[in-house]
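Batch 3, record 17
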Amino acid sequence: MASGQAYSGSRLDRAAQFRDDTDKLAALAGHEHARTYVVGGELIVLKSHDGHLDPLFLRTEVRTLGPLHETVFLGVLEGVPRFGMWLDPAAVEALKARDDLKLVDLRAIAVQGEVDAEHVPPLAEAKAILGWHARHRFCPNCGAGTRATQGGWRRDCPVCKVQHFPRTDPVVIMLPISGDRCVLGRSPRFPPTMWSCLAGFAEPGETIEEAVRREVAEEVGIACSRVAYFASQPWPFPSSLMIGCLAQAVSEDIVIDESEIEEARWFDRDELKLMLAREHPQRLGTPPPIAIAHHIIRAFVEHGCDVLQC
Amino acid sequence: MASGQAYSGSRLDRAAQFRDDTDKLAALAGHEHARTYVVGGELIVLKSHDGHLDPLFLRTEVRTLGPLHETVFLGVLEGVPRFGMWLDPAAVEALKARDDLKLVDLRAIAVQGEVDAEHVPPLAEAKAILGWHARHRFCPNCGAGTRATQGGWRRDCPVCKVQHFPRTDPVVIMLPISGDRCVLGRSPRFPPTMWSCLAGFAEPGETIEEAVRREVAEEVGIACSRVAYFASQPWPFPSSLMIGCLAQAVSEDIVIDESEIEEARWFDRDELKLMLAREHPQRLGTPPPIAIAHHIIRAFVEHGCDVLQC
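Prediction for the assembled complex:
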């Protein structure tokens, strides 16, 4: 299900058993074939030669890029370790002048396919966890500076001794459906012809299903009954887990929350089919196949209400 | 599905549209029927009179309890607002001497049913978000002290201006199954006769399904193929979202991770049936119905492999 979406399907073994083994981590870092992905803010640093883009850096190459911050042990592929490193966003600017490098947003990498698809999931892993380090240098419990440990999978506070783990934010993303119709919305951030599923963060003290019903009610004023889980997707912008669902709408009238949604309306399956095929007369479209929203909408186009019976 | 589990099924409307309306929040706080749940560390403060336990405090009653910290607007029930307040754990100690109060762990409240079931979900909401405030008084980005805003649904940094939202940690909890058998494990923290589903935090850059496969492989060395979502449960200890799944095991030999698991073994459905009924000859048992693990195991006992076909 949702097999075409980006950022999942990693071939790396995360080998978590090595994370608390300092000697092993040092040996992995010194492995002659060890390779490193480099993340600088929202950008991924790629080697560029003869039109080919390569996201894997040797240790010696990494040192030429600028002052590096956190390193994370991402895992092992066929016995060879892979790491992620965070480059100061200011240093990234300086790299834009280098002919042998290209700086690309991870969304563009996933959409354009210029980098071998094998790299997209570990790049997502690297971006999510390195971004967490960048935003969590201080202890939220006492304000002291924290230190990365466990191969980059934990930060410890030297003062209050609290251990901090990477944060992943569960987000519900859903399609309210009724018969042959469903509700799509447009965020003010979207291109003017793009329509997508509704979405929002799950809150403390609610189930996935309750979060779906609450978000649909808040954003478009539609009541939902049954909720069916569809699939999930890591979304490293900055650190979400998208939990895709379909929901049985039990009301019709749309009242939008203007602080979140610019427009929302009902679409029937025939219109959605044109949108997925990029043949809509007004050029309306959906998110591309890298996004789980595309696959939720496609499942409804192909199976109709049956998507709720499973 | 999983209808007997605790902490979900809240009757409150969270009324998020009021969170950024300071005047409205003040009016709600001053509402003559406004009621407040009081959380002190791991304990819930309850009023006790004539053997009846009541978790709802009037404003005037709240003031007698000690120095209060954060207040959170939890939502509205039939037009009446409910709040949650955090009491300093040191102040909670002093309350233990008061005859008109009782301090009870939220797990015990859910298991023992001494408090009306209606209160359990908003207590979970209150404990999860108030615990987040207690552990997040400082900005992880710059170390400065942060301030609660938005009715307690955000903390803002006055120095670097970053906005912080409540943290909810997605946890996968799953039952690897094969034919009429499944794998249960025992954490060193469990009572000696209790066996349960395996569980672990979802990590950055993986789907729910990938997290399930990784955790099962790490904890018991079993490979899994198909993963089916079952249901979810908020678990405010301190702030998890339990995502319940079943998984098709495709290997047999168990190798446990001794840092996480004390024992793990295969159980057949007949043995599980005895455990659920509390009739096991060695008194082995499962978690109680407040926990999603109970319902995952029960679904497998009742439906066998069919739980994976949905």
